[in-house]
Structure formats: C-alpha cells, structure tokens
Design brief:
By secondary structure, the chain is an all-alpha fold. It is built from six helices and no strands. It has helices at about 10-20, 25-45, 50-55, 60-65, 75-85, 90-95.
Length: about 100
C-alpha cells in the first residue's frame, strides 16, 4: 500500500490542526440544545408532536424519540422539524453552539 506524497502523518496533522472538530461530548451538547430549542418552540407554538410530524413528513415516533433524545437525529430530520416550526436550522445551531437554547 502506497502513501501519498505528503505521508500519512502529514495529512493527519493537517486535518488535526487545520480542521479542528469539537470533542464528541461538546458536539452532543450542541445537538441536545438544538433538540431542546426545537421542542421549546413547538410547545411555545402550541403544536403537538403529531402536527409537527405531519408537517415535517416524519412519523410521530421519530419526533417523540428525537425530543426525548432517544434517537440521534440526522441533519435531514432536524431540517424537516425546523421547517415545520418555521425556523431556520442554522440560526438554531448557532444559538445552541453559544450555549443558548432560547427560541428565535
């Protein structure tokens, strides 16, 4: 097996230092805050999980499991739920990344 001209370690160092990724526990905290913000907005709007599921094209079970943090949502699922709540997912993620899970 041949290595690239820069060598495996050089590529590994580039990815480690140039493209930092937050630790897994930090990413999980952000996801949890995003989910909390989506749930809070659903409740603020007075919408049921069934209504959000229908508007998002998801099953009620999926919405329930995401809200209970029993299921790791995909970006597609989060986009659908956010759209069903008339939210911009990017703004929700930005707020979650800074530690705030407040609505708009």
């Amino acid at each position: 097996m041949q290595h690239c001209a820069y060598g495996h370690n050089a590529v590994k160092q580039y990815l480690h230092y140039t493209l930092p990724v937050s630790p897994a526990d930090h990413r999980q905290q952000i996801i949890n805050r995003v989910v909390d913000a989506l749930r809070d907005e659903r409740l603020r709007l007075g919408r049921s999980q069934n209504e959000v599921a229908h508007r998002a094209g998801l099953s009620h079970t999926m919405v329930m499991r995401v809200e209970k943090q029993e299921r790791m949502p995909t970006i597609d699922t989060l986009l659908r739920i956010a759209a069903a709540l008339d939210l911009e997912l990017g703004a929700v993620i930005t707020r979650a990344s800074t530690g705030s899970s407040k609505g708009r």
